[in-house]
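hey so u asked for the seq, here:
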Amino acid sequence: MANDFPPSLLARLADARRVVVLTGAGVSAESGVPTFRDAQIGLWARYNPEELATPEAFRRTPRLVWEWYAYRRRLVEAVAPNPAHHALVDLERRMAGFTLVTQNVDGLHRRAGSRNVVELHGSLARYRCFADGAPVERWVEADEPPPRCPRCGAHVRPDVVWFGEALPIEGWAAAVEAAASCDVFLCVGTSGLVQPAASLPLLARRRGAYVAEINLRPSALDGTLDAHLYGPAGALLPALVAAACGERPH
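ran it, structure tokens below
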């Protein structure tokens, strides 16, 4: 499979000191994680996910939203990281500077062993206070969910970014800084449509990075980057890392 990779990509990745990888739902889908909209089955089929994932929905029907996210957490807990996740762990070990920016909230990158991860859209494994946004790690279970913040009594919410909310300031700043200073930028399993994350590969390319896409099919970024590789990330990423970095000592 190495012969299928552009020589320019292999050379740039082999020589890179700073690499950024942006991942989207396509990576997790190969582990069996339903996409945001595909999770609407069974009891949840009658709900529009874009109407559940908002602050307004949580104010209006907090128990409904809490239970939907509990259902999504159970889906994620039932799956495991796939070869694409593990290939990125391997790549991080081989690089002097590596940043993994993900739009996924399933935590699979961390479970696989990735360390320098920027979770742009938050994580299903974390919680925060709905009133002030402070992290909440423990609470007393309420008779009716969601639980209450032990500090102020407000509802506890999932630590994810809902429609109408801004990305975490520190996380976005870290992603922009990494994209602006990297040698190679890889987009993996992302549609290229969700902003502002979709602006990162273009920023990296303007700053001189080699930018490549790995996706099942052409995305909104098609034709705008240095290389486009089409196929399962679980097959292409391990092969790419082995081909470009296989001889580099850990």
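The mean pLDDT is 92. The radius of gyration is 19 Å.
lmk if thats what u needed
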